[in-house]
C-alpha cells in the first residue's frame, strides 16, 4: 500500500481548485507529474511543428512572383521561427531543455504536425498553406489562449495574432490567383485540392481514438475535442471557399439543417497514419534538412556559450575587485 503524505494531498487540492476556478498554473506551482509531462509533450510537438513548418514555404521565397510577395513570405516564415522560440521557452519553464527536445525531434522520438510532410509544388501552395494550414492552426490554438498552464496560454495570445495575419495573406494570395488568368485559377484550385484533406487531419484522430484528449480536457489544457474543432474549421472554410471562387474537393459536403453544420465526407485515416509513421512524401527530406541545419549551427551555439561564459567571468571579477574589465 502506498501512503500519500498529507502535504501532497493538500498541494493536489490547490492544483485541482486552481484548474476548476479557471485560474492559471504557473511554473513555481506544484503540479502532478502527468500534467507536466503531458504539457511538455504537447508544447514540444507544437514547437517542432513551427520550425519544421518553415521549410515547405521557405522553398518558395526565392521564386516569389514580386518583391511584395517575397517580403510578406519572408516575414511569415520568420514569424514561424519566433513561434518555435516562444514555445521552446514555455517548455523550458517545465524543466525540459531545448537541447533535449531538439534531440528528441532529430532522433524521431518526438513528432511534429504531419501536414509539413507534404510538398509545396506550386506558388499557389503558399496561399493554400496560409489559408488552410494556418487557418486550422488558429482554430486549434485560439482555445489554447485559455489553457490552464500560464506560460503556454500567454505564448498563444501572440502566436494567434500572427497566425491570423498568415491566414489572411494566404487567403488574399489565393483570391488574387483565383481572379487571375485561367492558368492561375487552375493552379489555385489544384493547391486547394491537395491541401484540403491533410488540413482536416491536422486536428488529430477522431475523438474515440484520441489517446490523450479526455485527460487534457479534464486538466483544461484542451478546451474542445478534435472532432468539434474540425467541424468548426469546415464550417468556417465552406463560405470562404465560395467567396474565393474555388471548390473544396469533397462531393459529400452538404449543409445539414438539423445539425446546423456542414456534413463532410470520410477522412482517409490510413494516409494519416502512414505519414505519421514516416512514410509521407517529404518526411525524410524535412528531418534531414533540420538535422543538417542543427549541425551547421553548432559553431553559433558554441560561440554564444563561450561569450556568455566570458561575460559571467568578467562580471564575477568586477564584483570581486570593484574594477571594470573587458
Ligand atoms: Fe506558427
Ligand atoms: Fe503561421
UniProtKB/TrEMBL annotation:
Superkingdom as given in the UniProt entry: Bacteria
Question: Per UniProt, what is one Pfam family of this protein?
Answer: PaaA_PaaC
Which parts of the chain are coiled coil?
none
Q: What is this protein called?
A: Phenylacetate-CoA oxygenase subunit PaaA
